[in-house]
Design brief:
The chain contains seven helices and 15 strands. It has about 325 residues and is of the alpha/beta class. It has two domains: about 25-105, Endonuclease, Chain A (3-Layer(aba) Sandwich), CATH 3.40.960; about 130-310, Rossmann fold. The chain has a six-stranded mixed beta sheet with strand order 10-9-8-11-12-13, sandwiched between helices. A four-stranded mixed beta sheet has the order 1-4-5-6. Strand 4 and strand 5 form a beta hairpin.
């Protein structure tokens, strides 16, 4: 079995990944991502028989990764969507034959978004035009109406109480500011920042911790978007250790289709499909946070552009 977190020769170096066992570079990237979050993994540990002929196995399926702590298999594919149909059939067949086995398919689109969001192999975009936008998911007015509704609900749920709003930097900036103004309860605002994998070879940790003591306080963790749940699970465990009177989560966007680690979200602005979105705090390589709406980027925008640093993005615009 290849080296993986918890079974490496040197446990003090969780970010080290032996590239030799992997069939595709994308698998090495995903393993590095799991190591960063200290998620234990095994590479292709088990094969499942899917079809038989004349009493012999005629077809088998071997998921790429197994996450023991989540009891979850992950199949990674970077094929174009039009070529994924056969693999989807295998996944469905596996679920039919082995209903107790949990397996998820991380497709090409989800993989590119995961790597770009967390810093692996991402590309930079220097400009945004209408041709780069697949569609506008939520307009400025739709966002503001929903944020106001969330503020009213939180104010009602915490009537007679004061709150601590904890924002997870950086994408939450606009959402947190608008939400705080919509809440009519006394509140304190504080921030956390989780290190980017590019800047943290030793694993996940906080670049910025809380300034405020949340012991015996009612805390709401504010996040822009929840995808796989890895970051949220790590942050919630950290906050629970501080002994708050209560702890809940308010997310502007919930991409439940991408979830790997279960996370309880008490307040959700919008459920969204598995698309790459930017705007209203959400970025692509630090760009487009200041768009007043939330839009879906065309795949060609973040897959095919040449890598150019944000320092060169002086012509970025939405025409």
């Amino acid at each position: 079995m290849p080296a993986n977190l918890g079974e490496q020769e040197d446990p003090d170096e969780p970010g080290s990944v032996d590239l030799s066992p992997f069939v595709h570079p994308a698998e090495a990237d995903f393993a590095a991502f799991l190591d960063f979050y200290r998620i234990r993994w095994q590479y292709e540990p088990r094969s499942f028989a899917l079809r038989w002929r004349d009493g012999r196995i005629a077809q088998m399926f071997t998921p790429d990764f197994y996450l023991p702590e989540q009891d979850l298999y992950v199949e990674l594919t970077t094929m174009k969507q039009s070529l994924v149909t056969r693999k989807n059939r295998k996944i469905r067949r596996l679920r039919e034959l082995y209903p107790t086995i949990k397996v998820v398919l991380l497709n090409r689109k989800g993989f590119h978004e995961l790597l770009s969001r967390f810093g692996y192999g991402a590309v930079d975009i220097t400009s945004l035009s209408e041709d780069d936008i697949e569609w506008v998911l939520f307009s400025q007015s739709e966002i503001q109406q929903r944020v106001q509704a969330l503020g009213r609900q939180i104010s009602t749920d915490y009537a007679g109480e004061s709150l601590v709003l904890v924002g997870l930097l950086k994408g939450v900036t606009f959402f947190l500011a608008d939400l705080a103004r919509a809440i009519t309860r006394p509140l304190v605002i504080d921030y956390l920042s989780v290190a980017n994998p590019d800047d943290s070879p030793d694993g996940v940790h906080f670049e910025r911790d809380l300034d405020y003591d949340i012991h015996n306080r009612h805390v709401i963790l504010i996040e822009d978007i929840v995808n796989t749940g890895f970051t949220m699970d790590f942050v919630l465990e950290h906050l629970r250790a501080r002994g708050p009177a209560s702890l809940s989560v308010c997310a502007l966007l919930d991409k439940a289709e991408r979830r790997i680690v279960p996370v309880d979200l008490r307040y959700v602005g919008f459920q969204i499909p598995n698309e790459y979105v930017v705007g209203y705090g959400l970025d692509h390589r630090e760009l487009y946070r200041n768009l007043p709406f939330i839009c879906v980027l065309k795949r060609s925008t973040y897959e095919d552009d040449e890598t150019v640093g944000i320092e060169a993005a002086t012509t970025g615009r939405l025409e």
